[in-house]
Every structure is written in C-alpha cells, then in structure tokens.
Design a protein that fits this description.
single chain, alpha+beta, about 20% helix, extended, DUF229
Length: about 180
C-alpha cells in the first residue's frame, strides 16, 4: 500500500515537473509600482569639442578656442599623425609611420590618428591621442577603380528612398522645376 502511494506521488510529481510555469500578465501602470519610479535628473551636457578638427578643404588645424579654454599650449608639444588603413580583415589595421606637424597640415587619408607628446616635462609623456575621420579626403577616384578579383569584388550600391509627391513638392521645390 505504501508502495502504491509512493508511486502515485512520484507520478504526480513528474506530471507537475512537465507543466510549464505560468507567468501572470503584469500591468506596467499598477499603482504598487509607483514607489519604485522616480523622475530622472536632467542631463548635464558638456561641450566637449576636439582640440583638432578638419576643415572643409581637408586641412587639419588646431582649435585655438579649445586650446585657450583648457589652458594648454600645443606649441609646447610634438604632435604626429598616422594614417590608418584597413587590411583584408577587421583585425588587420595598419598605421603608417608618424608624420610630424605643427599648426596646420593636409592629411591625405580618411582615417588617421593624432598623438601628441609633451617634451617640456622631465619625462616624455603622451598628452593627447585621438582617432579622426576626414570626410573631405577622397582616396579612390572613379578612374582609379581596380579590376575585380576574388578578394576585391566589384560592388555597386544603389540607394532608393521613397518620397510622396506632396512631400516632394514641399521639400524639393528646386528639383521639381
């Protein structure tokens, strides 16, 4: 008899183990959650402006107002830039040799890294390091397209965006003339 009760309990336990959990639907507007909600503090935005920037003609220049506001003197530093090129994979990034510059220079690369060292201190220390994107440099012109290979396929991208007629009339009046 006890064997039968034990077998029935095991059977009932096994059946309950196969029943999935039933999670009740939660109401996000339930008043019991109100003590856990709070109004976030307003964001304190700072104006972090880079010490260097690229002008529309592709010239790298020092931002004099940032230099003055931060109390730094870039003329006391030795600054270099290195071109960044990507090899055949994401883990194959190549940095060119360091090219020293003073106040302004033309950087003939879309990606480059600036590193500045302070030589006035007792020891040489990196005081600035940042990677930059130069949107104004076009390295591959249309007449420099390479032949297609297994590793360099010829790819043409076409972007199509829909625009309603009424929105086009409002947004693109010169195009419709």
């Amino acid at each position: 008899m006890t064997q039968q009760i034990t077998n029935q309990n095991e059977k009932k336990h096994n059946e309950e183990a196969n029943i999935p959990c039933k999670i009740q639907a939660l109401d996000p507007w339930d008043l019991s959650l109100k003590p856990f909600l709070s109004e976030p503090a307003p964001l304190q935005c700072t104006e972090n402006v880079d010490l260097f920037y690229v002008q529309e003609n592709g010239i790298l220049v020092i931002n004099a107002s940032v230099e003055k506001a931060n109390g730094v003197k870039v003329s006391d530093w030795k600054c270099y830039y290195s071109k960044i090129t990507r090899g055949l994979g994401d883990s194959n990034v190549i940095f060119s040799g360091k090219i020293e510059f003073k106040y302004t220079c033309l950087v003939e690369s879309q990606l480059f890294r600036i590193t500045c060292f302070n030589h006035t201190a007792k020891s040489v220390a990196i005081v600035y390091g940042m990677a930059f994107f130069n949107p104004y440099w076009v390295a591959n012109k249309l007449d420099d397209i390479d032949d297609e290979t297994e590793y360099k396929p010829s790819v043409i991208l076409i972007g199509i965006d829909s625009l309603s007629r009424s929105n086009a009339i409002r947004s693109l009046p010169k195009s419709l003339q």
